[in-house]
Every structure is written in structure tokens, then in C-alpha cells.
Design brief:
Mean pLDDT: 95
Low-confidence stretches: none
Helix content: under 10%
Number of helices: 0
Largest sheet: 7 strands, mixed
Radius of gyration: 13 Å
Distance between the termini: 39 Å
Shape: globular
Strand content: over 45%
Structural class: mainly beta
Number of strands: 11
């Protein structure tokens, strides 16, 4: 229903930072809650963070609380994930997702997904 494209992934040292971006193509981006998920090799895709339609509510997985920040700019149809204090265990493909409704933490809640962007944290 909405097309999403992630960018900003790359290679970073242990303790470093990266900011991911997710650009949406729809005309009604401001009505969608957005989520970030990640999938490491050989593991299931897991929830990372979510943000509601106007950006005044967020929720994070315990594994990233205090290190990651999700935000959005509806004028640019873009959601961001600022990642600080990165660890090797953060290495994964990161995906953004959109849903029409309140922010959510489950894969099943989201109807639109981006292609993913690789984040690799070296030790």
C-alpha cells in the first residue's frame, strides 16, 4: 500500500553510531505508524522500535533502549533510526515497516515493508 526504501546502513566499529533512513512514497504518510525491525543471519526477524503518526509516542525493544532513537519528518515522508553505542550483536539487516493505525511491535501488524539495509558492527 505504501512503498518504503531504507538507506544509511554500513560498516561501523564497536561503540560507533549510524543513522538509518526510510523514505515512503505514499501521499498519506502522516497517517501511518512506522516500525523498525531487524534480522540477523540464521535468526528470526525481531522488533526494534516503533513511532506513532505524529511522532509523540515511541516504544523500543529492551535490547536497544537508551541506545537507539526513532523519529520522523512527515514533511519529508521519512522515518529515521539513530543508533548509538553499537555492538556486534546489533549486526543485522534492518527493515522499516508501515501500518495504518497505532504503533505496534509485531510483524503481523505491518502491511508494507522496505527491502532492508545491512548494518555490520565490527569488534
Amino acid at each position: 500500500q505504501v512503498q518504503l526504501v531504507e538507506s544509511g546502513g554500513g560498516l561501523v566499529q564497536d561503540g560507533g553510531s549510524l543513522t538509518l533512513s526510510c523514505a515512503a512514497s505514499g501521499r498519506t504518510f502522516s497517517r501511518y505508524a512506522m516500525g523498525w525491525f531487524r534480522q540477523a543471519p540464521g535468526k528470526e526477524r525481531e522488533f526494534v522500535a516503533t513511532i506513532n503518526w505524529n511522532g509523540n509516542n515511541t516504544y523500543y525493544a529492551d535490547s536497544v533502549k537508551g541506545r537507539f532513537t526513532v523519529s520522523r519528518d512527515n514533511a519529508k515522508n521519512t522515518v529515521y533510526l539513530q543508533m548509538n553505542s553499537l555492538r556486534p550483536e546489533d549486526t543485522a539487516v534492518y527493515y522499516c515497516a508501515a501500518r495504518f493505525g497505532y504503533m505496534a511491535t509485531t510483524l503481523q501488524a505491518y502491511g508494507s515493508w522496505g527491502q532492508g539495509t545491512q548494518v555490520t558492527v565490527s569488534s
